[in-house]
Design a protein that fits this description.
Blueprint lengths: L1 H32 L10 H9 L4 H21 L5 H78 L5 H26 L1
Helix pairs in contact: 1-2, 1-3, 2-3, 2-4, 3-4, 4-5
Length: 192
């Protein structure tokens, strides 16, 4: 199974490489057989734009260098046309190749930065949500605990009176039990 996946990956890679090399070869032939006054090598930008989505940065740079080298080779192999016009067209083509490569790689880097920024935003949103949840839980638990402390102090006051006020102390203890049960319910809701 793993071998099949690897084999498919190799074929896909070779197919992708073929879809880049085929137009490259066609552009080289077109540029070489046409007269020097046509800047056919400008079409190498299509090859570079195809490569940017399929190859890593160093490979795209190597491919752009190969396209520029093929442009130079084609200029020297072409026998027809004006040499001055051919040199100008070669300069235009090489400039287009370099500029397209630079801009395409910048675009890919910008897209990667956007994806990284989105991933960081997701992490920040999770941390923020966790902080809000923690604050909410603390508030929910703190209310009944405050009630327990207040009722406990009241109970101590009622019991320390002379004579002790048992009815009011009993009601304070009942409020303590009620608040403790509320805190327990909050904790059970959080667990579930």
């Amino acid at each position: 199974m793993v071998e099949n996946i690897r084999a498919r990956g190799r074929w896909k890679s070779l197919f992708g490489f073929g879809t880049i090399l085929t137009p490259m070869l066609g552009i080289f032939i077109l540029d070489t057989i046409t007269d020097l006054e046509i800047a056919a090598a400008v079409f190498y930008i299509i090859v570079i734009l195809l490569a940017v989505s399929r190859l890593q940065r160093p490979n795209v740079i190597a491919l752009a260098t190969a396209c520029a080298a093929l442009t130079l080779l084609s200029a020297f192999l072409t026998a027809e046309g004006s040499r001055e016009a051919g040199l100008i067209n070669m300069g235009i083509s090489v400039s287009a190749i370099v500029i397209t490569t630079y801009l395409a790689l910048k675009m890919v880097a910008a897209e990667a930065a956007v994806h990284e920024a989105r991933a960081q935003l997701v992490r920040i949103a999770r941390v923020t949500s966790l902080g809000e949840l923690t604050t909410s839980i603390a508030h929910e638990v703190n209310q009944p605990l405050t009630g327990v402390v207040t009722s406990g102090n009241a109970c101590l006051r009622w019991l320390s009176q002379s004579p002790p006020n048992i009815d009011k102390a009993r009601r304070s203890v009942e409020r303590i039990i009620g608040d403790a049960n509320r805190a327990s319910e909050v904790i059970q809701r959080v667990r579930s």
